[in-house]
Amino acid sequence: MTSPAPRKRRGLARLWHAMRHSVDGLRAGWHEPAFRQEALAAAVLMPAAYWLGRTWVEVALLIGVVVLLMVVELLNTAVESAVDRAGSEWHALSKRAKDMGSAAVLLALLLCVGVWGFALWSRIAG
Q1: Are 108 and 72 in contact (CB under 8 A)?
Q2: For all residues of the chain together, what is the average pLDDT?
Q3: pTM
Q4: Backbone region of residue 87 per phi and psi (left: phi > 0; alpha: psi in -120 to 50; beta: other values)
Q5: Residue ranges in 1-126 assigned as alpha helix (H)
Q6: pLDDT digits (tens, 9 = 90+) for 4-47
Q7: Is the Cβ–Cβ distance between 73 and 35 less than 8 Å?
Q8: What is the enclosing helix (H) or strand (E) of 88?
């Protein structure tokens, strides 16, 4: 069964529906333990960025790496959901897609920890 063609929305109606889809995506992400942990950490780290950062660029970088980590986590969850939807049997390409999504989260996490670690070190040592 095919779904009907989407309606062509314009202007504010298009923005409103796009926002609703985005909120639905954040709600779906909240059901993932890893995203929930990152969101709770972000609730602490983002305000802390204003204390730790000395310039607006430093504050933006500290907040940016936290947001990047959350974005990558959502994309990883999307990949995993799409792969799981495609089939439950094991396949090398499914494993590869999931492993690459996990690796992307790891790199984003290492970047986040590195930036925050260096910023803390700079603040404490300097």
Answers
A1: yes
A2: 93
A3: 0.86
A4: left
A5: 11-30, 33-52, 56-86, 92-125
A6: 666 788 888 899 999 999 999 999 999 999 999 999 999 999 99
A7: yes
A8: none
DSSP state, residue 100 = H
Amino acid at 125: A
CA end-to-end distance (rounded Å), the chain: 64
Q: What is the pLDDT of residue 6?
A: 67
Catalytic member of 32, 38, 58, 73? 73
Half-sphere exposure of 45 (CA within 13 A, CB side): 23
User: Is 70:39 a contact under the CB 8 Å cutoff?
Assistant: yes
DSSP classification of residue 87: -
73 is catalytic: yes
Residue 8 is classified by DSSP as -
Contact 50, 59 (CB under 8 A): yes
